[in-house]
Amino acid sequence: MRIRLALARRERWLMLVAGALIALGIVYGNNQLHPAARTLTQEDIDGAVMHTIETKTLPSQAARAYEAIRGSVVRVREFERADGESEDTESGVGTGVVIVDKGIILTNLHVVSTAKRVGVVFADGTESEATIIATQPENDLAVLQAKTIPDDLPAATLRSTRDLALGDEVVTVGFPFGIGPSVTSGVVSGLRREYRSPEGKRLLTNLIQFDAAANPGSSGGPLVTMDGEVVGIVTGILNPNNQRVFIGIGFAVPIENAAAAVGISPF
């Protein structure tokens, strides 16, 4: 009997030792398969950043600026009805930018001043009629209210021109000759410029001069910083030969003037 009890105790002890060895083996194997995470150093982070820069093409500043503003840019359509016709036809195209998410849009007065009816097309393809709710002739500006607006319509971010400097990079977004949205890039070429409309009817002052390409149809579009913020509304191009094509000098109304046309403070 004593021998049998001794053997039983020995077997239990051996089983306990064996269980402990198995547990230690599992822990060791797990540590080998899943080693403890090493603390990242600044050298590791710098190396990862450099690897990304060297192996992936990052979007340009102009591309990022466009991405920030594209949802707020609209195509502005002028409609007229010829004598004897039963339907309106599109007679001209310009550009506008949403500055209040309730469908309030800034554009140029000369884009819509002769239209019998105004329509807009939003970035997502939504079409709507629009009414002119305010004008500011001295700055060639008009404010539109769209009757139908998309869900989650983004309004552009407006930025003061107070610290705008010659050489600052900018982009314009619009529908030159009805093609678009088109993006062009350039720099601020001058500040506080004057420009007289081709018809000679209006002298505009305190304008931003820029060299990003603009053409008929670009009028009313935003002049945008590399941060995607609107600093002006494109209003005209200078061309001595009256061919209405871009030769490198465009003008935009500062956003402070444009916001005043709506009766809001932009900042």
Features:
globular, 267 residues, Thrombin, subunit H, alpha+beta, 25% helix, 6-stranded antiparallel β-barrel
Walk me through this protein's architecture.
- With 267 residues, this protein is of the alpha+beta class.
- It has helices spanning 2-33, 42-55, 61-69, 109-112, 255-262, and strands at residues 73-80, 89-100, 104-108, 117-121, 127-136, 141-146, 169-174, 182-196, 203-210, 222-225, 230-237, 250-254.
- Among the domains are: 69-146, Beta Barrel (Thrombin, subunit H); 169-262, Trypsin-like serine proteases (Thrombin, subunit H).
- A 6-stranded antiparallel beta barrel has the order 1-2-3-6-5-4. A 6-stranded antiparallel beta barrel has the order 7-8-9-12-11-10.
- The radius of gyration is 32 Å and the shape is globular.
- The chain starts with a helix and ends in a 5-residue tail after the last helix.
- 34% of the residues are buried.
- The mean pLDDT is 84.
Globular, elongated, flat, extended or rod-shaped: what is the shape? globular
Number of beta strands: 12
Structural class: alpha+beta
Measured between the Cα atoms of the first and last residue, the distance is 97 Å
The side-by-side strand order for the widest beta sheet comes to 1-2-3-6-5-4
Question: Beta fraction of the residues?
Answer: 25-35%
Question: What about the largest sheet?
Answer: 6 strands, antiparallel, barrel
CATH class of the domain at 169-262: Mainly Beta
Low-confidence stretches: none
Arithmetic mean of pLDDT: 84
User: What is the alpha-carbon Rg in Å?
Assistant: 32 Å
Number of helices: 5
**CATH fold name of the domain at 169-262, please?**
Thrombin, subunit H
CATH superfamily name of the domain at 169-262? Trypsin-like serine proteases
CATH architecture of the domain at 169-262: Beta Barrel
Helix content estimate:
25-40%
H/E element order: HHHEEEHEEEEEEEEEH
